[in-house]
Write a structure and sequence with these properties.
heterodimer; A: mainly alpha; two-stranded antiparallel sheet; 2 strands; 65% helix; 1% strand; B: mainly alpha; Ferritin; globular
Chain lengths: 330, 258
């Protein structure tokens, strides 16, 4: 569903790389060539991408939980099927993002273990609860909307497998976004109770969604390498502003109020938002969001309770291979 | 204000479609409970896929039941505004997911039946049911293959998976008899060439089960005591909880558009 804090390049071991190859690599990037799995790449590039792609994959998988929370309670059969299909799409995104990360040399198991051990991050937005049906509409509209802003530039990311995965992911996300907006539209055209439900959801999700774009440019430390490698093409604040500018008219059309009394439109037409409360963001990143513990517990439970199933599948596959070898030897 | 249950005029054909719709919805709902919690991502995908197929079948069958009934009921009223005594699904499909073995054995018993059932129903004299069957048959064939492969993996996997699979078979076996039961209303539809006599499918169903069980080194129970009641609304205690969740929005917010 989404990525954040893309500006986290590893720079430690770059000095060890062969300078000539590094220069050649950078020349390819500058020429907008795609880097493929078997190509030489600096260790820090590999490490940065592995971290970014796996965080993105973890976010897709953890992101199944808040929306999955409403599959069994969706208000109509049509909504139930659409939500289930959507959450299934997120799982598919996770799968092919893990596959893209694997092309860089880490296995899915290693990456998942790092997440379950709390060593790898996922998007902080999924640490907020889905309390009403309107939250499902709001996640589609805003969370997927923000994800699209982040991910469209990633379709041109210098690493080929990631860029290609993003093309497919973006197509599905934009479908999800329209679906979410349509849920909101239905609520806003409904009863007073439904409109209040929609407004309440917007009130709760607005600020956390703005935080999805990561810390303000003024305080970001590592954008340089990712920008130079053309992994990241726009700054956090640029993407955030683009998102706000696109979203305000959509909220107006719904008849909803953005929960920011200080918001103004400047002479260039940009909607200027008030200062974001980064303390909250830091708290959620530190594990103190409303659902951090629940999300991790749910993923660990699924992993632990599924262990015997994965062992059975592995054991059966080994037995079968053994039988085939024995048969071939006869 | 809670919404009152709708009343359905259960003519034999309405009831027939409703029973199959309820089977598909309740099992689809159960499978959807796995979404985000499965033992591996591939199974999150697969179980959601099967759930989507079943919910899709349910919608078509509800739509047809409503059309045949000819009142102002629709798929959502039929799904959301009948209580536990009005639901007509098999006891098998409402059984809780339990562990992965129980979910897959439940699916295996059901899909081994529906695979044969929908294929036979493609010859129904009722054009709508035949069309629904043509679509559902393809889906059920995949569901059966998926479940069979898992029964074999679990049965012939580790000692633990074998024990869990065998336990699930014994636990769920008593709910399989209901699939083959027929009442007077259904008998009239069978005689008219609209419905299939499930008794004619039982031999092949058992053969599918025993072939897969053999390969899986699992045993089918000898016990032939079978639980009945789902088709006439006498359910296990589990269904009421499932419905209270499934129907909560329509019960809390009556009559709104979502």
């Amino acid at each position: 569903m989404y990525t954040q804090a893309l500006n986290t390049a590893e720079t430690d071991d770059r000095g060890l790389e062969d300078a000539a190859r590094a220069a050649q690599f950078q020349a390819r990037i500058d020429a907008e060539e795609r880097i493929e799995p078997n190509d030489w790449m600096p260790a820090a590039y590999r490490k940065t991408l592995t971290r970014q792609i796996s965080q993105h994959a973890h976010s897709e998988i953890v992101g199944m939980l808040p929306e999955g929370n409403w599959i069994t309670r969706a208000p109509t059969l049509r909504r139930k099927a659409a939500l289930l299909a959507k959450v299934q799409d997120e799982c598919g995104h996770g799968l092919y993002l893990y596959a893209a990360a694997e092309t860089l040399g880490s296995s899915r198991e290693e990456l998942v273990d790092a997440m379950l051990a709390g060593k790898a991050k996922y998007s902080s937005i999924f640490n907020y609860p889905t309390l009403t049906w309107a939250d499902i509409g709001t996640i589609g509209w805003l969370v997927d909307g923000a994800a699209i802003m982040n991910q469209i530039p990633l379709c041109r990311c210098s690493y080929g497998p990631y860029a290609r995965a993003m093309i497919r992911v973006c197509k599905e996300e934009s479908f999800h976004q329209r679906q979410g907006y349509e849920i909101m539209l239905t609520l806003c055209r409904g009863s007073d109770e439904q409109r209040a439900m929609a407004q309440d959801a917007l009130n709760r999700w607005w600020w956390p969604v703005l935080m999805m774009f990561g810390p303000p440019d003024a305080t970001s430390q590592h954008s340089d390498a990712s920008t130079k490698w053309k992994i990241k093409r726009f700054s956090n604040d640029e993407l955030r502003q683009k998102f706000v500018d696109a979203t305000v008219p959509q909220a107006q059309y719904l008849g909803l109020t953005i929960p920011d009394a200080g918001m103004t439109q400047d002479a260039d037409g940009h909607w200027r938002y008030s200062e974001i409360d980064w303390t909250e963001f830091k708290q959620v990143l530190a594990g103190n969001g409303p659902c951090n513990r629940d999300r991790m517990a749910a993923r660990r439970k699924a992993h632990e309770e599924g262990a015997w199933v994965r062992e059975a599948a592995a054991s059966y596959a080994a037995k079968r291979a053994q039988r085939q070898t024995a048969q071939a030897a006869e | 204000m809670a919404v009152a249950n709708i009343q359905v005029s259960e003519t034999p054909l309405v009831l027939y479609a409703l029973r199959r719709a309820d089977d598909a919805l309740i099992l689809g709902h159960r499978l959807s409970e796995w979404c985000g919690h499965a033992p591996m991502l591939e199974e999150d995908m697969a179980l959601s896929n099967i759930a989507l197929d079943l919910i899709g079948q349910a919608r078509e069958l509800y739509g047809y039941a409503a059309k045949v009934e000819g009142k102002d009921n629709d798929e959502d009223k039929l799904a959301y505004l009948r209580d536990v005594r009005q639901y007509r699904n098999l006891l098998l499909v409402e059984q809780p997911n339990g562990d992965f073995a129980q979910t897959l054995v439940r699916q295996f018993f059901y899909s081994a039946f529906t695979d044969l059932y929908w294929r036979a129903m493609m010859n129904s004299r009722d054009a709508t049911l035949a069309a629904i069957a043509a679509k559902s048959e393809k889906e059920s064939a995949y569901h059966l293959r998926h479940a069979s492969e898992w029964i074999i993996r679990l049965g012939d996997g580790t000692a633990e998976s074998h024990a869990r699979a065998q336990g699930a078979i014994e636990h769920l076996w008593a709910f399989t008899g209901e699939m083959f039961a027929v009442d007077d209303g259904e008998r009239s539809l069978i005689d008219a060439g609209i419905a299939v006599d499930p008794a004619t499918l039982r031999g092949r169903w058992l053969k599918t089960l025993s072939d897969v069980a053999n390969e899986a080194t699992l045993a089918l129970p000898q016990n032939d005591w079978m639980q009945q009641g789902g088709r006439s609304g006498r359910h296990s205690e589990h269904l009421g909880h499932l419905l209270s969740e499934l129907q909560s929005m329509q019960r809390i917010f009556p009559g709104l558009t979502w």
